[in-house]
Amino acid sequence: MNWHTTDLPELLRQIQHALHTAPAAPTNPLRTAAFITASDSHPAARTVVLRRADADTRQLVFYTDARSAKLHELEQHPAVAWLFYHPGEQVQIRASGTAARQPADELARAAWAATPLPNRLNYCTPLPPGTPVDNPDAGQPVAWRHREPTPEETETGWANFAVVVTTLMRLEWLLLRPQGARRARFDWNGTAWSAQWLVP
User: Fold this and answer.
1) Are 14 and 2 in contact, with CB atoms under 8 Å apart?
2) To the nearest 10°, the Cα dihedral for 60, 62, 66, 72?
3) Helices and strands (H and E) in the chain: how many
């Protein structure tokens, strides 16, 4: 990435490209990010895996268990934030907008079909995420503790599989460098992105 450009439209394209390509690269630090929600009592942050980033629709996508607390939080407070950081390039990207669960439509079904079997196991737990248990393996189905389930058996997880889509309204970029940090903000005005340099 040419993070040293002084052209704001080009910088926006670089950010969009970096996020667009991250999901296909398992070792890319931008593939995982902090996803922050709010509730009536406190903010909550957790790491999610970026599954898709689309510059045209301004969308960021991840998958989660439909029984997780974050979906309830999104129903009450759809405003969210993402925090990405690439330590090698010393680039931070903050993204914010509104998020919602995508309907269980053909796109969600295709995402489930493409989910590897080991990942599907996360959605097959009999208890919701965050449920207190007596031992670390209690969330796993008993029948699968000593054998790998078949793909057909993991279809039970489809009922718990959710696709969450964030529609972005703001991107903020920070580059840390010895000769001085640089920071910029991009805001969606309804028809296009506006851009502004900021003091780091």
Assistant:
1) yes
2) -40
3) 4, 9
Tokens for 186?
Answer: 């991009």
Q: Which residue has the tokens 């790491």?
A: 47
Architecture of domain 8-198: Roll (2.30)
Domain ranges within the chain, ordered by starting residue: 8-198
For residue 76, what is the enclosing H or E element? helix 69-76
* DSSP annotation of 119: H
Residues 90, 176 contacting (CB under 8 angstroms): yes
Digitized pLDDT (tens) for each residue of the chain, 200 residues in all: 889 899 999 999 999 999 999 999 999 999 999 999 987 778 999 999 999 999 999 999 999 999 999 999 999 999 999 999 999 999 999 999 999 999 988 989 999 999 999 899 999 998 899 899 888 877 778 888 888 888 899 999 999 999 999 999 999 999 999 999 999 999 999 999 999 999 99
CA separation for the pair 131, 69 (Å, rounded) = 11
How many residues in the chain? 200
Tell me how crowded residue 65 is: count the other CB atoms within 10 A of its CB: 19
